[in-house]
Amino acid sequence: MSENITTTRTMTAWRQSRYGGPEIVSAERVDVPAPGDHDVLLRVRATSLNAADHHLLRGEPLLLRLGLGLRRPRNATRGIDVAATVVAVGARVTQFARGDEVMGELPGGGALAEFAVSPAARLVARPAGLDAVTAAALPLAGGTAWQALEAGAVADGQRVLVIGASGGVGTYTVQLAVLRGAEVWALTGARSEQLVAELGARRTFDYRVTDVDALPAATFDAVLDIAGTAPLRTLKALLRPGGTLVLVAGDGGRMLGPLGRMLRAVFVSIGGAGRRIRPLAAVAKPEVTRELASLAAAGRLRAVIERTFTLSEAREALAHIDAGRTVGKVVVDVDPFADQGRTGRRSTPEF
């Protein structure tokens, strides 16, 4: 790829000065961040948005603000998932060099910008056959799905129920469960039933027509609840003896969010023929991101991308996530011509 490189010390970043809806974010010219000794500076190629960005934008549940900042988030730029090019490395970074294509999760966000800084340890190499938009759609949602299946001990020959199967986490959960050899039943919206079936679900149900308590009791080895609204005792009754209910999300109100539901799960899990309830607190695992990237590059894992936005449309992308009911992933393509070998001038900071 040939390109003329100029130098710059400032960049465009979408920032929030307070908590609120998508209308509060604005594009600002700010200084390009400098990497620390263990960090790398990234030129962002693409970022995908997740429910986490919605919660960080609004500062909800309110309990989050104790760690994020009471009046405004300490990190003012959203975007956790990233596919990017390394443009500078810290003094103690040995695993990456300038020009490497990488992907991963940024701690706290920062990818809705032209450049971002990340600890090198949070990133993995992007496979040559994997485009930036797909790579950006994988880490957080795919990693959450992977960890949910691990928590549920999902294995070959088991029957698994996925509730909320059409969102970012849900579409990966269905596919990864099928890759493990499980028989997947899925609860989703009517408009997504065909998609979820194409991803490998054996049976699909429209949640507006079929209530969870209408499904046969003691039928599933694992129930993976991504929607987070069904009664816990109802979900527990769906499990076979020894089965596991994994709580990926939960509706616990504006103050506590999913924490309230997870606390109730402690009491509901007592007794019941070894039927377990396991709340999931997914964390960034670069080794999982590497596996997801390998599967996607080999054509074995599909990133369902509902819509792609440009960086100038970042507010609209956040509004799309904020409205809910997204099928699959929403991606902001920050540098849409990077993978096509665009020629011309591109601003890159000089260190």
Q: In terms of per-residue confidence, which ranges show pLDDT below 50 for 5 or more consecutive residues?
A: 1-6, 342-346
H/I helix tally:
11
> What series of H and E elements makes up the topology?
EEEEHHEEEEHHEHEHEEHEHHEHEHEE
Shape: globular
The total beta strand count reads 17
What separation lies between the terminal Cα atoms? 22 Å
Helix content: 25-40%
Please give the radius of gyration in angstroms. Answer: 21 Å
State which percent range the strand residues make up. 25-35%
In summary, what is this structure?
It is built from 11 helices and 17 strands.
Keywords:
six-stranded parallel sheet, alpha/beta, 351 residues, globular, single chain
Write the topology of this structure.
Layout: E1 4-6, E2 10-15, E3 26-31, E4 39-49, H1 51-58, H2 65-68, E5 81-89, E6 101-105, E7 115-119, E8 123-125, H3 132-136, H4 139-151, E9 159-163, H5 168-179, E10 183-188, H6 193-198, E11 203-206, E12 220-225, H7 232-237, E13 239-247, H8 253-256, H9 258-268, E14 276-279, H10 286-297, E15 305-310, H11 314-322, E16 329-333, E17 345-347
Parallel strand pairs: 1-17, 9-10, 9-12, 10-11, 12-13, 13-14, 15-16
Antiparallel strand pairs: 2-3, 4-5, 4-7, 4-16, 5-6, 6-8
Helix pairs in contact: 4-5, 4-10
Description:
The protein is α/β, with parallel strands linked by helices and 351 residues long. Helix content is 26%, strand content 27%. It has helices spanning 51-58, 65-68, 132-136, 139-151, 168-179, 193-198, 232-237, 253-256, 258-268, 286-297, 314-322; strands at 4-6, 10-15, 26-31, 39-49, 81-89, 101-105, 115-119, 123-125, 159-163, 183-188, 203-206, 220-225, 239-247, 276-279, 305-310, 329-333, 345-347. Helix 5 (168-179) links the parallel strand 9 (159-163) and strand 10 (183-188). The longest helix is centred in the middle third of the chain and has 13 residues, at 139-151. The two termini are 22 Å apart. Residues 1-6 and 342-346 have low confidence and may be disordered.
